[in-house]
Design goal:
- This is Sugar kinase.
- Helices cover about 35% and strands about 20% of the residues.
- The protein is built from eleven helices and 13 strands.
- The chain has a nine-stranded mixed beta sheet, with helices on both faces.
- It is globular and about 50 Å long.
- The mean pLDDT is about 95.
Length: about 325
Amino acid sequence: MSDLVTFGETMLRLSPPDERRLEDADEFEVLAGGAESNVAIAAQRLGMPATWLSKVPESPLGRRVVSELRGYGIDTDVVWSHRGRQGTYYLERAGTPRGTKVIYDRDDTAFATAEAREFDVDRVQNARVFFTTGITPALSSTLRDTTASMLKAARQGGTTTAFDFNYRRKLWSPEEAEETLTKLFPGIDVLVIAARDARSVLGFEGDPRQLAHKLGSQYEFETVVVTRGSEGAIGWHDSVVHEQGAYETDTVSKIGTGDAFTGAFIARRVSGDDVPTALEYAAATAALKRTIPGDVALVSEEEVEAVVSSGGEELSR
């Protein structure tokens, strides 16, 4: 059994080469990408056996996703469906002022119909950590119930539950997200949330340290991690706040940075690290991810250790 079990949809990402426009592209790079599988891979790269649970169409595209994820070394436990389609997204890369553009195409997918009864609950209850994100219940009313059921099953089995708030404005409104996700909070032990989401979706006020303390106190989480982009992250645990800065990095791709951070944080906590040390390794993993194309943090434990020990100095020096 895996120490970490994650639950969510992984899409196929189609990207024109270089900074080509989508409307002008005549070829695409194809990669798999999804928050929950990205977290599983990052954790696995830091030595934590991980399983990704999902529902996938029995089709060439569905098999393409599963095959790629298996190639990264994680276990995949999927329900194969003969109904619904494979979710995709399109990424158009560009610098300022155009900016990177993302277009989701994930309506009527097989995953949107996933129900808790379709999965092996023992997988969840025998894991040390069960992880999912706020993206999953945003995808369908069915998945709102499924997410709640999976978190409940994990808690009943004594499994630690970890949740990345991960608000996506292209999927639902702040009001919908707040109403749905706060109902899940009683079943969550570890919350990861961006400072901007705590303010704009949940209506909390204050600096990141205050946000972490307010969230932890109000909802009785065991641990709260508030991410703050280029300024690093704040960790709250046992009513104590810990601050972690970001390591300097040259950004090749920022997609998946937050997932790399979260996967590393979970892996290091499970390995026995305290919150400040886990935050260090999470920040180092996130910095390395920004140097890597695609969605996935293809890092090694040795690289992450080197970033932490060097304080972020270039590893090849």
